[in-house]
Structure formats: structure tokens, C-alpha cells
Write a structure and sequence with these properties.
2 domains, alpha/beta, Rossmann fold, two-stranded antiparallel ribbon, 11 helices
Amino acid sequence: MSFLFDIGNVLLKLHFESYRAKVLGDANAPLPGKLGALKAPYETGQISDNEFVTKSLQILKSNLSPQDYTEAWQDIFSPNNPMWEVVEKLQTDGHRLILFSNTNALHSTFFLKKYEVFQYFQHHHFSQEVGAIKPHDDFYQKAVDNYDLIPAETAYLDDLPENIATGKAFGFQSWQYDFNNHASCLDWLKSLGI
């Protein structure tokens, strides 16, 4: 079976409060709307890493250096160890594992190098590289085409309901993951015969 794994809040927990604390001085401070508007163009490859950092610093009117900003942007992850155990077992059992994520190069180069769980994945399907973003159909269709996925033989785990909805529309065996209820995911895997 092929397994599509989202990364944020599935394989790695996200801690944007750390980023906000470093760039805004307050872990609970809201981010400017203009900064949020950079996310989709950046994560679909329409703007470069350097453009993203430069524009972010301009929007924030920040005195941080590009290097300090980049480090703050990257250092938002921690391991979700129970899911790592699942990944290792799936790989040992011979399943094909594919990373399936909206992400960008500043994040992906950081976490692929830092966390050993990613060695178990044969492929990655990242929004910035394919020029499409979840939950839009073209992100999923490109994965089907690139990896010859058979939807009924493809399991998909993601934390966001809108992404899962598209996965179900494509016929994937789909599970909305909640790291606070990992046991229910294990039950779902058992129902698939895993």
C-alpha cells in the first residue's frame, strides 16, 4: 500500500508561537495579514526563499538579520514520536511512504536534515516543488500521476479537514489525524489491515 503523510501536526508538531516570540517579541501576538498573504505564493514556488525573507522583514518592519529571521522561521518543529513509530513499522512492512505536504524550501531543507524519521520515505511531494497547494485538486492529481497511485490502495493522513475532504474525493483511504488522540489512528490502521 502507498501512504501519503502530511508533515505539520502529523509527523512534526508545529510551534508557531516560538516564531512569533522571536520576530514579534510576543508568542501570542497576531501576525500581520500581509505576512499571511505571502504563504501561498511562497509555498507554491511563485516567490523565492530570499524574496520571502526580504518581504517578511519589510512587512514586520523588523531589525532582525535575514539569517536570524530564517532561523526563527525554521525552528518551529518538534517530533511526534508515536507517529514516528508507525512510520518505522510501515517501512519495515514494505509499504511505500510519500511525504505529502504544503511546505517550502526553508522548512523542508531544515526538517529533512534534522529529523531521522524522513529517511523512511521514498518520495516527497511538496507544494513549493510541484507548484500546487492542498486542498486544491491539482496537488493531489499531480501525486497520482507522478507516483502511479491507485486511490483505493492509497492511505492518506492529514490534520486538516479540508485536505482530507479532497483526499476522500480522490478515493484515498483518508484519516484526519489528531495527535491528542493517536490511539484512534492506530484503530483506523488496524481497520485497513495494517
